[in-house]
Structure formats: structure tokens, C-alpha cells
Amino acid sequence: MIKNCLYMYKKIWGYSKLRIILIFVVAFFAALNTCTDLLFFKFMIEGISEHRSYQYILVLIAIRLGILLLMQCVDNISNTVIFPFCDLKIKKGFSIELYKKVKDIDLIGFDNAKFYDKYSRAFNETEYRATGMLQTLSYVVSVTVQIIVVVITLAYINPVAILISIFGALVTAWANVVNTKAVYNYDLKKTKLFRGFEYIKRVFYIPEYSKDIRMTHLDQVMYKKFDRLTSDNRQVVKECAPKIAAVAISGSWAFNFLSVGVTSAFMVYKVYQGVLGIGDFVTAVYAVNNLSNNLLQFSNIIPQFSEHALFINNYLEVLNYQTQIQSEKDAEEISPFGKKEIELKNVSFHYPNVDCNAINSVSLHIRAGEKIAIVGENGAGKSTLIKLIMRLYEPDTGELCLDKTPYNQITKNSIAEVFSVVQQDFQHYALSIKENITLVGHRGQKEHTDDEAVWDAIRRVGLFEKIDSLPKGIDTQVTKEFDEEGLNFSGGQLQRLAIARMIYQNSGVMIMDEPSSSLDPISEAKIFDLIYELAKDKTLILVSHRLSGVKDMDRILYMEEG
Ligand code: ADP
Hints:
single chain, elongated
């Protein structure tokens, strides 16, 4: 637990030192405030009962007010003005670290429900967990300093009261620790359900589903799913919540009984015995109350740390995920351009938790510059084969080679750059048209975009007139999600945009999965002409149901049951 939490604090320190330093400054002022508060009561009561001058009392009030105002200024300025800046830095640090990791996680990781749960938790929690850990740290620092101040004050008045309070706090701490694991398991169970609820929300929210929501009974189906999830959630609450509540109630009851009940009775007894003066009594009651609250907070801190630690375990598991798709250390870079030769030697592959192979001992030699089509019924294994060729999956057995070099002797990035792909489920993003096209990098360059090449690609796919007529041209946003002037493309136009991206990338192997499914026959013929022209000096792999499109290919491969 300690190792995990220290690891996280070290990271936060790396992102924003000021944030942590300020926690200590704020805690110092809070302790100073508590200290003056305790002494203020003592001196006020003693001053009044000893009939000190009115001026004396006013000076006491002025000192008390001055320190209170100072503390409130430091607290407010830190919390409202400085912390938000620091938190932005911390949020950026953690988010980008996690986003960078995503590229290393094999696609197959998403087929593993257990890993996917951890992955969702890491994504959903990282941001507020870092803020939560800072909050815990400020509790620890301010509560510790305050406890020290109060204990010193009480030690002068009556040490037995301290012991009773500490005993009460230990009971509560124990109850909280017992509860942490139960709360974590409770959260874990809820995460699974939470994903279901999020999915339903997405279906109602994302424009892609809006047509079906209006035209079909999809909404009713989703309501039923919502009902099922709600009743599962109710079951989880029923199983876990009463136990958590019972332990929490017994812990805080024991704490209050000892810290508030027994100590107050004990102090009054001491006053009756004539051992405690009235000024000391009021200060002591106030101090015990303060100590009890701080100890209670302290006892809440331990479970907070163990909850953080459990999360950090989960987070580190995602960060330390070892990709299965690895190239050798001395793997070489290859040029993404020019005709490529691809060879599959006896390749087999199965999805996790599925008994039969999706790809069964496939051997295939695609010559440099060859144009091949892959046809076959749904579920035959065409998309899986393409994903193996793009190295999104690693085969169970067999080997794949690019220009006679085995895949594991070529760097992963280099392989990714060899393929320009138009998938059936082509994704477009709420970014500008230019960004949507150039995200693949131009001729191997990742950093610099080339506007001329973007316009050239747009012209070739027949979108020039449409985009040229827009006030912002290629800087127009795709979708209206973040910009009212954004453009919603039709299905066919999106497919053209996908092909524009491919033209811009200009790499050696073109892979097209149903590239013309949303196009009318005239546009389809034009797009196929364009594809053949583009593929003149490239290798082309085309997955299509339409035989009209594949008749001019060098070879047509028919696939069945992998
Ligand atoms: P095609 O592209 O020819 O329609 P796929 O390659 O998508 O076929 O699928 C081949 C087989 O693998 C099918 O039986 C399909 O159900 C299965 N399959 C595809 N994706 C997954 C997955 N992520 N997990 C488990 N099985 C899958």
C-alpha cells in the first residue's frame, strides 16, 4: 500500500511541485488557527472571570480575528486560484501517460473482459483519483499538525482524555479498514454494470444511432436492458451495502461513545473534584472535541490510502501491460512506399475463449504489386485475415513476412506505416477535415502536414467542389458536435474522405474492406477506377461482396471457415 501511494505522490510531485508544497503551507496556517482558537477560549474565560480590562479582551479578539482572516486568505487563494492551475498540469500528465499506453495494448486485450474492466476503471478513475490522493495528503498533513497542537495543549490539562480519544479513534480505524475491501469489491461489481449503463447512454446520445432510435424499437430494447441492469444493480446494493453500513455504524458509535461521552463525563467529574478550573475545562472540552474529529478523520485516511492503493494496482497493471505483439530488439525500419510482397506461411489464429480457429493454416503469397480480392461469406475470416496482415493480431502458429522479412524483425510502427486502410467501419473524428485526412502522416512524415497534398487527395475523390465552397475550407470541422458550422458528411462522402486519407498516406499496400458499400453504382464505378489507378504502383488487397468490383483483379481468393 505504502509503496503504491508513494509511487503516485512521486509522480504528482513530478507534474506539480507547487501543489504539494502548498498543501503543507495551508496545513501550517490551519494548525496556527487551531492553536489560537484553543488559547483564545482559555484566555477569554479566564480574563472575564478575573475581570480583566475591556481593552485586554478586545486585543484578544483582534489577534484571533487576524489569524483567522490570514488562514482563510491562504486557504481560499490556494483552493480557488492556484490549485486549479496545478490540477490541470496533473490531469494532463496522467491522462497523456495513459493515452500513450493505449497504443501498446494489443487489440486482443479488449476481447478479455477482465482486462477490459481494469482498463475502463483506469480510464474512468485516474483523473479524480489523483485529486483524491492530494485531498488525502492534505488531510494527513493538516490533521497530523492539528493533532500535535491539540495533544500538547491537552497534555497540560489532562492526559487521560487523550488516551480515551485515541482508543475511540483506533476502533473506528479498524472498522474502516475492514470496510475498505468490501467497498472496493462493491465498486468492482458496480463497474461492470456501469459499463452497461454507459453503453445505453451512448446509444441514445451518439448521432450514429439516432436514426434507429426514431425508426425502430431500439429504444424499447434499451429500456429493457436498462431494467435488467437496474435489477442487477439493486441485487449488488442488497448484497453489499448493509454489511458496509453495519460496520461503519458500529465503528462510529464506539468512537462517539468513548471520545465524546466518556471523556466529557470524565472532565466534568474532574471539575467537581476541583482539579480542573473553568477556563481549562472549556478549553479541554473544546480540545477533546477537536482531537476526536481529527482522529476520526485520521482513521478515515487509512482506508482512503488502501482504496487508493487498490486502484493504483489496477492502474499499474494497465500501465505495465506487456504487449504480445513485439518485434525483436534489433528489428529494422522499412520504407512504407513502393510495391510490397506479403507472405503468410501456415498461419492459424483463434480468438480468446473461442474453441475453433478463425484462421486455419492459411498459406498465401501476395506478389509485389499484385492486386488481390478476398471474397467469402460473413464470418469466413476475411477481416481477421486482414488484421493479421496488418499485425493487429499475432498468429498462434505460422509466420508472416513482408518483402521476405519476418514481421518480428520489422519495427511495429514501420509495419503500421506500410498499410493504408479503408475499413468498412471507417472512423471519422470531431476534428477538422484536414486533421481527419492527415492523421495517417504524409509519406512517412508524422509532424508536418502538406496542404497541397490534402487538396490533391480531396480533388481526386471528387469532394473538391463541396469543400472548396465552405468558408473555412479544409479547416471546417467534421460533425457539428463542437462547432455549429461543422459539416455532417453523408455515408458515401465519408467513404470518399476515407479514400482521401489513403491517397494522402500513399503507402505501399492498400487494404480496402468493402470500400464502396455506401456508394451509388455510378460513384462506385468511378471509385473503383480511382482505386485501380491509385494501386498502379502498389499492392492492393480488396475485400468485397460485389463481384463487379473485383473482376479486374489479378487473383480472387475465396475464403470459407478460416
Ligand atoms: P468476415 O470478415 O469474413 O465476416 P471475421 O474475420 O470477422 O469474418 O470473423 C471470423 C470468425 O471469427 C467469425 O466466426 C467471428 O464470429 C469470429 N470473431 C470475429 N471477431 C471476434 C472477436 N473479437 N472475438 C471472438 N470471435 C470473433
